[in-house]
Every structure is written in structure tokens, then in C-alpha cells.
Amino acid sequence: MLNPKLKAMIRRIDDLPTLPRTVFRITEMINNPRSSARDLAQVITDDQVLTARLLRLVNSSFYGFPQRITTITRAIVLLGFDAIRHLLLTTSVFDIFSDRKSELQVAREKLWDHSLGCAVAAKVIGKQIRHDKIEELFVCALLHDIGKIVSMVYAQEDYAAVTRLAAEKNILLFEAEAALLEYTHADIGRLLAERWNLPNMVADVIVYHHTPDQAGPYAKEAAVVHLADIFCRALQLGSGGDHRMPALDTAAWDLLQLDETDIAPMLAEVESGFNDISPFTDAIVTAATA
């Protein structure tokens, strides 16, 4: 049985806006090997808001294309299906949680930076282990703490109490949530992933990024995000809402088959990639608020 506080949170989640239908249709099309760039472009251009945002993003300084991209088809050809999907998902998620009370702005921006940093780190780790779905890792890492944003915006008193306890006891937010609320941001994230009809891999990584060995067939992906989270905290990229470094799960480390000598160059690449992505972040803010 669900505890009363989680039931109350479920009711709040039922009132949350959903992702644009276009994002779901794009996901379905990308999973269909018969889909062409023209087919995908037709779906995107049916949504004028997402079309405008996507063109702003691909023409931002983050990509630095020498010529202006004026059509969605051209953007798809240049970036690829998966990159287009994660761009639309990123700006849609940002948009859902952007127009809120100003007093939450600083904390939300730090959490957003942490999530983007983790997404960059997941791609770096994925490349190192030669994972075949780098863009999927980006999405999993981007959304791994989405439950914290829901709590921050829709359960402010609970979130404030959790962050106070985490600071007082010098424990992880995850641990403070379990002690105070009897549920965690991972539980909220799963509910939201189900509401948004996201792939099972994304939902399971959200749930198990603290305990990757429990993620079943997606243990490796959960291990990537688990390590990406640790990398971001080591580099102090944004804030996950607490000041503790999570312990490295030894089973996750063994699963990824990395060597200790890989760590320093990967950290350098993550830091460089995060600095490079700042124009991308600015473009997302512009695209989502224009």
C-alpha cells in the first residue's frame, strides 16, 4: 500500500502538465526504422511552438553552424534523429517547470545545471564504455532528478524540510527523503515517467540511479548515471540539493569495467563539455520563454 504522503504527491502529479504530444510521436517514429527525416520533420512542423524552439536551438552558438538552418528537415539531417528528440525533450521539460515562483529560481537553476552536467557526464562515460545508445544515456541522466524538481515546485514545505534535515545531518537528500517522507525523488520520478509514457529504461534508471544493481536489464545504464552523478558532484556542477558525495557503488563500477586511470581524463572532458554547453543552456532558456 502507498503511504498517505506519496498518495498526496500522486494527486499533485495528476495535475502536472504533460509533455507535448509531438514528443511522444517523435519517439514512436524514431523507433520505427522506416521513418525518414522528411516524415519526422512533418510531425515536428505540425507543432509551431516546438518548430520555432528547435530552430532557435540549432541556430544557437552551441552548434555554431556556418550557415543559418531554416528548415526542420535540414536540422534533422545535420543532428540526427536521437539528438533532435533529446533537444525537444529537454526544452519541453524545462518549459514545464520554468514559469514558477521567483524564490525557487536559484535552487531550480542549480538543480537544472546539475542535471545537464550529469547528462554531459553520461555521454562521456557512455563513449568511454562504447555504449550503443549515447543519446538515451543523455536523456536518462537529464531526467534522473526530475522528482526533486516536482517536490521543489509542488511540495515546497516537504522539500524545505528535507533539505534542512540533509544539511543538519550532513546526509544525502535521498536519505533525508526516506527518513521524513517515506518516499524519495526516485519514486516521484518513476510516477512522472509513467505519466509521460517514457521508455522503461528511462523510468528504471530514474528509480535505481542510487542502487544500479537493482535495475535489472538496465543496470549498466543506471550505473552510468550513478557515476555521472558522482562526477558532477566532484566537479561541483550545479547542486543536487545536498552537500554529500554519494558512495561509489562497487557493483556499478565493476559493471562498467572502467580503470582508475580513466577517471581523470573523463572528469576533464566532463568539465570541458559542461562549459561548452552553457550556450546550449542559454538557448534552451530563450527557446522555452520566447
Describe the structure.
The protein is an all-alpha fold. It has two domains: 20-96 and 277-290, no CATH class; 101-258, Orthogonal Bundle (Hypothetical protein af1432), CATH 1.10.3210.10. It has helices at 4-14, 21-30, 37-45, 48-58, 72-79, 81-96, 105-128, 134-143, 146-154, 156-169, 173-180, 185-195, 200-208, 219-235, 250-256, 263-276, 278-289. Helix 5 (72-79) packs across helix 6 and helix 12 packs antiparallel against helix 13 (200-208). It is globular. The model has no long low-confidence stretch (mean pLDDT 85).
Structure characteristics:
single chain, 290 residues, mainly alpha, Hypothetical protein af1432, 2 domains, 17 helices
Short recap of the structure:
The protein is mostly helical and 290 residues long. Helix content is 69%, strand content 0%.
Give the radius of gyration: 19 Å
Write the element-wise H/E pattern from the N-terminal end onward: HHHHHHHHHHHHHHHHH
How many β-strands, per DSSP? 0
**H/I helix tally:** 17
Please give the structural blueprint.
Elements: H1 4-14, H2 21-30, H3 37-45, H4 48-58, H5 72-79, H6 81-96, H7 105-128, H8 134-143, H9 146-154, H10 156-169, H11 173-180, H12 185-195, H13 200-208, H14 219-235, H15 250-256, H16 263-276, H17 278-289
Helix pairs in contact: 1-12, 2-3, 2-6, 3-5, 4-6, 4-17, 5-6, 6-8, 6-17, 7-8, 7-14, 7-16, 8-13, 9-10, 9-12, 10-11, 12-13, 13-14, 14-15
